[in-house]
Amino acid sequence: MREVQCPSVVHMSSVSITQVSCSYVGGYKSNEKYLCRNDCGSDNDVLITTTQGSKNRYSISDDTNKRVFTATISNLNKNDAGKYWCGVMRIIFITDNPFSLTLTL
């Protein structure tokens, strides 16, 4: 089983907000969760963490009982299309599977 499960593709059209929910294995309940863009190769790619809660157009929340965290992007525009990752922080980032956000505006 992957340590973090997310949808592989999110299609949006003519909406201003999207939410992506990602599940994780039980051993990561207390770990920080995050949403990042591109290849998640640097801290600059990280858009939001559960420690931050919300920042600019991004927010993230963690339901530790269900082991699901949900990342939200508001005020979507065509520049938001691309590859994103949901992950769990350990000593290193765990980004098991990316998802692609496709927008038709």
How would you describe what is shown here?
The chain is 0% helix and 53% strand. It is mainly β. A hairpin with a 3-residue loop joins β9 and β10. The chain has one domain: Immunoglobulins (Immunoglobulin-like, Sandwich). The N and C termini lie far apart (35 Å). The chain is globular, with a radius of gyration of 13 Å. The model has no long low-confidence stretch (mean pLDDT 79). The strands form 2 sheets. Strands 2, 4, 5, 9, 10 and 11 form a 6-stranded mixed sheet that branches. Strands 1-3-8-7-6 form a 5-stranded antiparallel sheet, with no helix packed on it.
Quick overview:
Helix content is 0%, strand content 53%. The chain is mainly β. The chain is globular.
CATH homolog superfamily: Immunoglobulins
Would you state the CATH class?
Answer: Mainly Beta
> Would you give the CATH topology?
Immunoglobulin-like
Total count of domains: 1
Radius of gyration: 13 Å
Topology as H/E string?
Answer: EEEEEEEEEEE
Question: What is the helical fraction, as a range of percent?
Answer: under 10%
Number of helices: 0
Name the poorly predicted regions.
none
What's the quaternary structure here? Answer: single chain
Strand content: over 45%
Mean pLDDT: 79
What is the CATH architecture assignment? Sandwich
Structural class: mainly beta
User: Main beta sheet, described?
Assistant: 6 strands, mixed
How many strands in all?
11
Distance between the termini: 35 Å
